[in-house]
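$ ./design --mode recover --in tokens.txt
reading tokens...
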């Protein structure tokens, strides 16, 4: 028996509950399932050698999200209008986000696929919609700088790997600090995982993640009024690209705690903005 729950849809930054969508008053969301992670191995085969050689780490592929629905029309006219409204609701040119009221802190960026319906009677039908999940990951609804880590507003929930014994912060004004990555994977900007690091300081900063060994160095003097932004693997100084003035280093976040050290400068204030990813 499915648990009564609602579907939350986010399009163009606006959220709507399926149960509160007037045009879809006869449509009931039943439940949602997500296919297992899709992994592509990186093997090489050499003539004359047994087996295969691991040529690199495996990569995660796209997945499928399946949602079950029941539609109950008032009459044939209402049934036809409902079918039209459902199509307009589900099929967009661009991907959008869906999540359930059962798991409000985790969302999916999806595109709907064509589906078949099962006619129960003249005015009722059931159907399952498969959504493509191109990234292959579930993701946190909020980023680390968008919402405080509390469980009463739906932004965060149990099951997101958040520690219960330590308060999380992603803004620091010291040279040594720890950053927690609650994801199931390493956050790596080279894989187009979101990671923004903003820094103000005085001097030539060197940012070191002692846990991963990543080092980013700016070879240019910063003043107190300057702002450095690492937007993924692209560095900006005062909104201008500054890659040629760096060591071209990229900062990643391993799963769990990451120990950071900032050297070469004084008065650092640094902020980490990322979105946790889950399998």
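writing sequence...
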């Amino acid at each position: 028996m499915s648990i009564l729950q609602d579907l939350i849809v986010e399009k163009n930054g606006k959220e709507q509950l399926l149960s509160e969508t007037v045009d879809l008053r006869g449509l009931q969301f039943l439940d949602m399932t997500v296919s297992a992670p899709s992994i592509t191995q990186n093997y090489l085969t050499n003539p004359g050698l047994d087996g295969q050689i691991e040529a690199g780490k495996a990569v995660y592929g796209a997945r499928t999200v399946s949602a079950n629905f029941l539609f109950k029309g008032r009459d044939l006219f209402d049934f036809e209008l409902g079918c039209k409204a459902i199509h307009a609701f589900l099929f967009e040119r661009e991907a959008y986000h869906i999540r359930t009221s059962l798991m409000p802190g985790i969302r999916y960026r999806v595109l709907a696929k064509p589906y078949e319906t099962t006619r129960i009677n003249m005015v009722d039908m059931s159907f399952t919609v498969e959504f493509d999940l191109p990234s292959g990951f579930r993701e946190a609804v909020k980023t680390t700088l968008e919402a405080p880590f509390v469980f009463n507003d739906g932004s965060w929930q149990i099951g997101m790997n958040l520690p219960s014994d330590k308060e999380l912060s992603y803004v620091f004004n010291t040279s040594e600090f720890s950053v927690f990555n609650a994801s199931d994977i390493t956050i790596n900007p080279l894989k187009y995982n979101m990671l923004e690091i903003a820094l103000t300081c005085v001097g030539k900063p060197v940012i070191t993640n002692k846990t991963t060994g990543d080092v980013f160095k700016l070879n240019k003097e910063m003043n107190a009024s300057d702002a450095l932004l690492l937007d993924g693997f692209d560095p900006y100084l005062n909104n201008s690209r500054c890659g040629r003035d760096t060591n071209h280093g990229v900062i990643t976040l391993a799963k769990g705690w990451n120990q950071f050290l900032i050297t070469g400068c004084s008065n650092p204030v640094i902020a980490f903005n990322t979105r946790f990813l889950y399998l």
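exit 0
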